[in-house]
Design a protein that fits this description.
By secondary structure, the protein is α/β, with parallel strands linked by helices. The chain has seven helices and seven strands, in the order αβββααβαααβββα. Helix 3 packs across helix 7.
Length: about 230
């Protein structure tokens, strides 16, 4: 069944060709972030594989995970340097996407960071973008994303001749009967029009203890969003 969000993405893709060519927010004990957290986000259900398959063949910029919150005390020490851990999740997402060999030309966080360093007066550091303007738009997707986020995403996307951006907003670790579970909240942005096209969560398997497999599991599920199920 085609959802309204899928129809929206399809309409935007068709419009782009004509011109030229879907989190439950929980309280947490600790947080580490690369950017300020947005205002309270509208809840989204977990997403199914293939939900974003229409974008797999499009040029896409993949931003770094911006925020992490941990409510599983037993995992805190094992996370180590939390900013370094977020970077490892970024790398896992890039690895999982490259394994799928999507037809679109995708640019990943390390690519965006290099491009920003080469163009310091034009592009912002993708690890420190201002995500506060996302809050109002997640509550009301008819709104336009405000500045400075709109301009930051537009500039970085333009450097890779891309219109669409995948922004992993928040990685959350929540208690589970087995120990803990990781969930990643994501949005898809039309960077040219500063519009929210999709938002949703991917959740990993419950884990009795923390290990690098937690991030790899999530990354695979992110790639699944862009993969048509067989």
């Amino acid at each position: 069944m085609i959802t309204p969000v899928s129809r929206l993405i399809a309409l935007v893709l068709v419009a782009g060709c004509a011109q030229a060519a879907t989190t439950s927010h929980s309280s947490v004990a600790a947080s580490t972030h690369r950017a300020a957290a947005p205002a309270e986000a509208l809840a989204s259900p977990p997403q199914s594989p293939g939900a974003l398959a229409q974008l797999a063949s499009q040029p896409l910029v993949v931003f770094p995970v911006q925020l992490m919150r941990n409510a599983v005390p037993a995992w805190s020490d094992k996370l180590g340097d939390q900013r370094a851990y977020l970077s490892s999740v970024d790398d896992e997402i890039a690895f999982a996407a490259r394994e799928r060999r999507f037809r679109g030309k995708w640019a990943y966080p390390a690519d965006l960071a290099r491009a920003a360093r080469r163009n310091p007066t034009y592009a912002a550091d993708p690890y420190t973008i201002a995500i506060d303007p996302l809050g109002p738009v997640e509550k009301d997707p008819s709104k336009i994303i405000g500045e400075p986020l709109a301009g930051q995403m537009r500039a970085l996307a333009a450097l890779f001749d891309a219109r669409y951006a995948l922004l992993p907003v928040e990685l959350r670790f929540a208690p589970d009967s087995a120990g803990g579970r990781a969930t990643l909240h994501l949005v898809i942005i039309d960077a040219r029009q500063a519009k929210l096209l999709w938002k949703g969560d991917v959740s990993g398997d419950a884990a009795a203890s923390f290990s690098p497999a937690v991030g790899a599991d999530l990354a695979g599920r992110v790639a699944d969003l862009f993969t048509v199920p067989r």
